[in-house]
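Intended use. Records like the one below are meant for learning the mapping from a protein sequence to its folded structure. Do not use them to infer anything beyond what is encoded.
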Amino acid sequence: MENLETKRHSLSHIMAAAIKEFWPDAQLAIGPAIENGFYYDIDFNETKITETDLKNIEKKMNHLIKQNLKFERVELEIQAALQEAEKEGNPYKTELISELIKKGETKVSFYTIGKFTDLCRGPHIETSIKIKPGSFKLHKLAGAYWRGDEKNKMLTRIYGLAFETKEELDEYLKMMAEAEKRDHRKIGKEQDLLMMHEYAPGIPFFLPKGFIIFQELLKVAREHSYGEGYKEVRTPQLLNAELWKVSGHWDHYQEDMFILHHAEDDCDLGIKPMNCPAHMLVFKRDIHSYRDLPLRLAETTTLYRNEKSGTLHGLTRVRSLSQDDSHIFCRPEQILEEINILLDKIKNIYKIFNLQIDEIHLSTRPEKFLGERAVWDEAENNLRTALEGANLAYKINEGDGAFYGPKIDVKVKDAIGRQWQLATIQLDFQLPQRFELHYTDTDGSQKTPVVIHRALLGSLERFMGVIIEHYSGVFPLWLSPVQIKIVSVAEAHVPACQKLAEELKAAGIRVEIDDNNETMGNKIRKAANEKIPHVLIIGDKEANSEVLSVRDRGQQETREITKDKFINELLDKINNRL
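Structure written out for the chain above:
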């Protein structure tokens, strides 16, 4: 029985077959299966594809599927395949085959369905009829540079969704509609939380209300992600290229960095994309004994990464980010205990936000890596042992580790069931060696520490984007930028509103007054649209009494409560992050 990924990949070929019937001169690039569906990158030359075209392509795909066409595989000598691609004038297939020749491949495979043949490694479903009616949908057009390189030609990318059944597809479409309502960019604009500008692509502007949320997340990081035993530092944003050469980033990460050249000193400088090399220098500054370890250094400086323009997305994919970033310098025998502590911290942090841990991935040695295989094997075994000791199920993500060490990635589910990758724990035996770090062991010998790289909320920007959508902008009291809105019934009640606001502010509660010359109904509707947790209505009765009239978010009726009791109620919720 074919798996879902195989069906999705087969659908990309069926889509390509349909496209070639409409546009015979279109040049095909690549068409893989992806999470929730598939896509194909196509060079339509000067033709502009529209949403109407998508409907016609989908209709043609259904027609092809009903014919019960077989996927037939053939192999060609690779030089013959290259000549055929060159003859057809397809530069994309020509480039792909040329790369395979460089890798020493002698044959390549092609798959034919009906009249359509495409270069492909496979596998595919046996026949098109395996695709169930209504189980797929073409849903989006996008631009995509060939090979993701902005220097290359922009192609048309057609995305499709695909599931085993129509019911599963319908359920996913409902979730997507809900996700569109919750889009943090939309809510961020509506609630005056953040803005983006063409002068700073990928670098968000936090407006006053949004910055309150950011600061609250920073408090959570300091209290729950860091906590006792952590020492916060502040290190430079610009560091000489020689540092990045020592760390290995110059060879392995340079294309993702912003590089400057200092003419006077005639040297290159890298704007730091991560804190670890600077923290290595902080450790190296002093002489350390085994008694000093573990040494936990933390920093939330803004980092800058040269993300491709096409990948930028609100707060969830940015060029500037602030992590709850820490590096734990420890002895080998301390690794398991430290990782166990971190796994407990992760559980506790996500409980605060009612986020459910969905999957844990152990990412292993990538194709390009620093150090010896034996050291990598030891590091990967340490992470496996920690996860198994914590009774946490995990999946192996082969080859997706950082270039200096394997890592644990934690994925959570939000309120509508979407998965997000947030926390990461990376084990590093390489950078301490490259920076020649040492501590004096119990026997007086010099040993190299192990470094644990860890960010538990991850990027605070990304985390903020996730929770805006998770809460759909309806933040719990402790996180709400405005916790109380005080509404005056008439102008005569404004002084009483101001007096009450001062008392609430003195207690540490965030308050706004609506004293506009509008009807009470309009003011209350505005507060509801702003998702304010509590609205206090001040008229004659409330102005001359210690009893408040409170309308709680989502409620149509007001309740009465004494001022002192209400303040205590608020503080209890805020202190317990409710």
